[in-house]
Amino acid sequence: MNRASFLPIALSLAACTQRPVVAPAPAPVPAPTPAPPPTVEMRRIAPVQTLVAAAPAEVGMDARLTAELDSLANAAIADRAASGIAIAVGRWGRLVHLRGYGAVDWAPGSPAVTDSTLFDMASVTKVVATTTAMAMLEEQGALDLDQRVSWYLPGLRDTAKQHITLRQILTHRGGFEAFAPLYREFRGREQYLRQIDLRPLKYPTGTQTVYSDWDLVLAGLVVERVTGDSLDRFVDARVFRPLGMRDTRFRPDPSLRPRIAATEVDSARGHIWGSVHDPNAYALGGVAGHAGLFSSARDMAVFAQMLLNGGSYGGVRILKPQTVARWTAPEFPRSSRALGWDTPSNNSSAGRYFGPRSFGHTGYTGTSIWVDPERGLFVIILTNRVNPTSANNKHVALRRAVADAVQSAITDAPLIDWEARLR
């Protein structure tokens, strides 16, 4: 117990202690035994199989949280951070906030954003789809994280890439460049694998951590090679449908356009609306290990709670608790990267108060997910900040403000500035 926590308790105990009683006789009478401190009855929160709607105060959170999140979201829209925003917050299996703000596009009369509006998840695809699939396959013994990627993908022939392992691509230590506009010349899986193989590594494998889309493009191809199925069909059958995530999918049907948040106005593709924003994922047919997934705040809340439940939701087990814990913990010193997932670091979208055991990920389009297992907490923020241009970065401050507001609203645990400890 630190000194700041000890002082109030010591003062409380002193207040509850009676003064010694002195008898009128010359000999002093021994002081009575001090009264014990008052017993604090801790309210137990019953576990639940599925998310249950509740007020913040029911799970140890300030009742003003709802109004504060409303204010942050509406102010961000007024500042043109995004035309639409959806926020989901849950604690101990209780959904304390699930709302949409603004509209799917800036045009007057555009449909309002709701908890079931579909957002282009961008790189959140990496963890919700690809990483989850890889973790499931490893758990089944179909993958070895320390096996060479080229063992699963014989098309990776470059000598310099022969010793890159699955663990290294999942932690962004494979040596690949961060990005290249392959979409300008190439299409499809075979051409992309060939180009990734031909392009030189940017640093010796395993010596640095450099976030690269190619890592998860390759991971998605590994899933398809091992399962004999496409990535989208595999995760739909094994993850999304079993969990009841009815909004989550790759390549949404055009009929869903009124429910989809529009993204960027592109010189080549026009106003991107209902197809994947990421140009390399688009060139790969809309299904890729690094991008392409669409989902809603409602569905993402289910996914986050599944992780907090140790890999199960509604009686359906996706992963073992040990697998969830292992895949979401940092893998290397001086790197925030876990297996597929990220963990809090300086100036990250997790804000100041998500602890070191927390994990999450962001997406280029303005999406993010953060989970804090120690506080039983998740925060989902979905925006279409790239509408109409990706030059807009106002969502960055919004992410941190929402994360800090949620953590600060917790009343039954101390608020620790973990980010300050990282500096």
Structure description:
- There is one protein chain.
- With 423 residues, the chain is of the alpha+beta class.
- It has a domain of 287 residues: DD-peptidase/beta-lactamase superfamily (Beta-lactamase), CATH 3.40.710.
- Helix content is 32%, strand content 12%.
- It is built from 13 helices and 13 strands.
- A six-stranded mixed β-sheet has the order 1-3-2-13-12-11, with helices on both faces.
- Helix 2 packs antiparallel against helix 12, helix 3 crosses helix 7 and helix 3 packs across helix 8.
- The N terminus is likely disordered.
Label the CATH architecture of the domain at 52-138 and 223-422.
3-Layer(aba) Sandwich
Report the strand count: 13
The coarse overall form would be: globular
User: Which structural class do you get from the secondary structure elements?
Assistant: alpha+beta
Count of DSSP H/I helices: 13
Strand content: 5-15%
CATH topological fold name of the domain at 52-138 and 223-422: Beta-lactamase
Q: What ranges have pLDDT less than 50 throughout 5 or more consecutive residues?
A: 1-26, 38-42
Our measurement of the CA-to-CA distance between the termini, rounded to an integer number of angstroms, reads 23 Å
Largest sheet entry: 6 strands, mixed
H/E series: HEHEEEHHHHHHEEEHEHEEHEEEHH
Radius of gyration: 25 Å
Strand order, sheet with most strands:
1-3-2-13-12-11
- Arithmetic mean pLDDT: 92
Q: What share of the residues lie within helices?
A: 25-40%
